[in-house]
Automatic annotation (TrEMBL):
Cross-referenced InterPro entries: DUF72, UPF0759_sf
Protein's UniProt name: DUF72 domain-containing protein
Pfam name, any one: DUF72
Domain of life: Bacteria
Native source species: Actinomadura monticuli
Length: 283
């Protein structure tokens, strides 16, 4: 049984020399990251569809069971709001083809203004997507979290499409006032919605935002450790992404989360052994 964990990116200047080798060419950075975590969020695809050659490099650097959750471009989700985006969608899908099984889910992150009145558009968009992929939807309109009827309607649309609802849990982050520049920046940008934890498919996806203090991040994720272990016992295979405002320690924190789940569910397979940040010496 697998529980996949990852971060919001595979390269971070604060990781170099601490967790990953200090100087790696672009074509080796994901390979080093994949020795620490077995999943990653594809956030860069939100801003532009990458060249197919870049995606081929991503596939070459990762094993077949590595999980990419890649975000649809903003031209589709935010600018056109899922309408009339056929050409952009086809271009994106062609670019993602080299990932093959590594494309765990195509991630439809919707703007906060996309509300219950837009569910017909979402349903039509999901119906038109090729069945070869899995899909995951992240909503940020508060009605989906505070209105039981709106939540049921959204779940009905997602279940009919075989899509997952991706929660971005920021409840631990917003529990106390920010105490660093990165936290103050995140305070104004991250969605503030109630926690949601119901899985709709066999492969739930969770995004969790902690604090820059590792201890507070660990304290805040207890709910998700227990939930991930529960999902494993149900036969599900979750993917959990660990965020902090500065992400400086997100890489080892993701592994720690995995360790805590394995302590509750020993049947979960271990993560790979990380590559050393520095080469071994003779002395």
């Amino acid at each position: 049984m697998r529980v996949h964990v990852g971060c919001a990116m595979w390269a971070h200047v604060r990781w170099q020399g601490r967790f990953l080798p200090p100087s790696l060419p672009p074509g080796e950075r994901l390979r080093a990251y994949a020795s620490w975590c077995d999943a990653v969020e594809g956030n860069t695809t939100f801003y532009a569809t990458p060249a197919r050659s870049a995606v081929e490099s991503w596939a070459e650097q990762t094993p077949p069971d590595f999980r990419f959750v890649v975000k649809l471009p903003k031209t589709i989700t935010h600018e056109r709001r899922l309408a009339g985006s056929g050409a952009d969608l086809r271009s994106f899908l062609r670019a993602m083809e080299p990932l093959e099984s590594r494309a765990h889910a195509l991630w439809v992150q919707l703007p906060g203004s996309f509300g219950p009145g837009d569910l017909g558009t979402l349903a039509g968009f999901l119906r038109g997507l090729p069945a070869a992929h899995r899909y995951a939807v992240e909503v940020r309109h508060r009605a989906f979290f505070e209105d039981a009827g709106a939540a049921r309607d959204l779940e009905r649309v997602l279940v009919q499409a075989g899509a997952e609802w991706v929660p971005f849990d920021t409840t631990a982050f917003f529990r106390d006032r920010p105490s660093s520049d990165a936290e103050r920046d995140a305070w104004t940008k991250k969605p503030r919605v109630p926690r949601r934890s119901a899985a709709l498919t066999e492969r739930p996806i969770v995004r969790y935002l902690g604090r820059d203090d590792a201890g507070r991040t660990v304290e805040g994720w207890r709910f998700w450790v227990e939930k991930a272990a529960e999902w494993v016992r149900e036969g599900r295979s979750p993917t959990v992404f660990i965020h902090t405002p500065d992400n400086a320690d997100a890489l080892p924190l993701a592994r720690r989360f995995h360790d805590e789940v394995r302590a509750m569910a020993p049947e979960v397979e271990p993560l790979p052994e990380p590559v050393p940040a520095e080469p071994p010496t003779l002395f």
